[in-house]
Write a structure and sequence with these properties.
Helices cover 6% and strands 45% of the residues. Strand 1 and strand 2 form a beta hairpin. The chain has a 19-stranded antiparallel beta sheet that branches. The protein is built from three helices and 19 strands. It is mainly β and 439 residues long.
């Protein structure tokens, strides 16, 4: 690992949100939120030019200039029509639930279907090194996800709950316990052909008392900004950081959470290797700290370190550490910026990765949000064996809510890479779309 890369990471990590290492599981598509501009009544787009500023004088009378269009198009009527289209009344209604909730016991899920024109994300010379989104040119069921949960309420003393998740689709094999020694342990053999499969990504018990709680079992390790769960991601595709730097998607062990401090949540625990299901194949610490720094800025630091795998039948020995710092900042109520920095080192520098992912989200109204992601990641032997390469990607996308339960996510993406040693370059452009129906 070059010192310049470490210095760059340290510099950008000074301002940095993610949530806990094992993030709370919710059945909601993650979107930038803003108070409704229309409130199911008359549109008032332009009434709040910066969202945080009060309406001043005649600023809300409507029209091209007062709405803040700021474009000399020679036709104010055209400007008004554009504003009317972007800020039209948008009423998505209330979400419906197939199962509902009773006595803190809930069940639900989602269906995600998708299509992509080509492979997205790659290591140099492999063109398609990503774990997810690896079945292009096919309309597919990516996630048929079901969950059942009993949430704990430890405010009045001891309480016990738990959660189980089941997935079927082309994402199923990616969250199986493939870190288990042997190919038929836990859910690792639940394949249906070459591209589809099932998995139990979560199966845990939760115990809480006061401000302390602990999960025991098999859990998703949401270390970075993006998640295995489709409902928590803005884009159809995943970042390089998610596919390369996030060595662990799931793990089995114990994780404790303490939330008794103002604006601070601390987590810490132990897992038996990465991507394992109730069988020891490693010994690693996992933990982090999440901070609400201001009303607009949240930041978190997560780390996983130790022996990730130690039995040769499941792959070569791997030990080291993963660091991730994520920040999320509300520039204003309709504009959000997020950033993730990550650092991975395995086997004393045998394979490393360092990078920065940037996200920008603009809420147009309750139905439409626009997003952009730009990322750089240097992988030295982690994405492609023996290759030191710089990977870049730019993704532009939109989330459109047809109703409270149905979301469409079209995007276009550009990937390019350069071999640091030889200077060989490669690139690829693609588009993708997905739809998520929650229930």
């Amino acid at each position: 690992m070059k010192l310049t890369k470490l210095a760059l990471l340290a510099a950008i990590a000074c301002g940095t949100y993610a949530g806990n290492v094992f993030a709370d599981q919710t059945n909601e598509v993650q979107l930038v939120s803003c108070e409704s501009n229309c409130d199911c009544g008359e549109p008032v787009c332009g009434c709040e030019p910066a969202c945080d500023d009060a309406c001043d004088g005649d600023a809300c009378d409507g029209g091209c200039d007062s709405a803040g269009c700021g474009l000399d198009l020679g036709d104010c009527g055209l400007c008004d029509r554009v504003l009317s289209l972007a800020c039209r009344d948008c009423c998505i209604g209330d979400p419906w639930q197939l199962f509902g909730e009773c006595n803190r016991i809930s069940a639900g899920g989602w269906l995600q279907t998708g299509y992509q024109s080509d492979l997205q994300g790659f290591g140099l010379g492999t063109f398609g090194g990503s774990n997810f989104n690896s079945y292009p040119k096919h309309f597919q069921l990516q996630q048929g996800w079901l969950f059942a949960e009993r949430a704990i309420d430890a405010s009045c003393g001891l309480d016990i709950g738990g959660r189980v998740d089941y997935i079927y689709g082309t994402d199923g094999p990616e969250v199986q316990a493939f870190g288990n020694p042997g190919s038929t342990r836990y859910d690792n053999s639940w394949d249906n052909g070459a591209n589809y499969g099932s998995a139990l990504p979560q199966l845990y018990m939760e115990i809480g008392y006061g401000d302390i709680s602990a999960k025991i079992g098999h859990m998703i390790t949401n270390i970075g900004f993006e998640s295995v769960e489709a409902t928590k991601n803005f884009f159809s595709s995943h970042s390089f950081a998610f596919n390369i730097s996030q060595v662990s998607y799931t793990a089995t062990g114990v994780l404790a959470t303490y939330s008794g401090l103002d604006n601070v949540t601390v987590t810490g625990g132990w897992v038996e290797g990465v991507n394992t299901g109730f069988e020891d194949n490693g010994d690693a610490f996992i933990g982090g700290i999440a901070l609400d720094l201001t009303d607009r800025l949240n930041a978190s630091y997560n780390v996983m370190g130790g022996k990730f795998r130690d039995k040769p039948e499941s792959g070569p020995l791997a030990q080291g550490y993963i660091h991730s710092v994520v920040a999320e900042y509300d520039v204003r109520c309709d504009l959000k910026y997020a950033m993730q920095t990550s650092l991975v080192d395995l086997n004393d520098g045998e394979a490393t990765a360092v990078g920065v992912s940037n996200y920008l989200f603009k809420t147009v109204n309750d139905c439409t949000t626009l997003g952009a992601r730009f990322e750089w990641l240097n992988s030295d032997g982690l994405a492609t064996d023996g290759v030191d390469e710089d990977l870049y990607e730019l993704t532009l996308g939109m989330n459109y809510r047809w109703c409270a339960n149905l979301m469409f996510r079209p995007e276009v993406r550009w990937d390019w890479s350069e071999d640091v040693d030889t200077g060989v370059k490669d690139d690829r452009a693609s588009y993708a779309t997905s739809a998520i129906l929650t229930f």
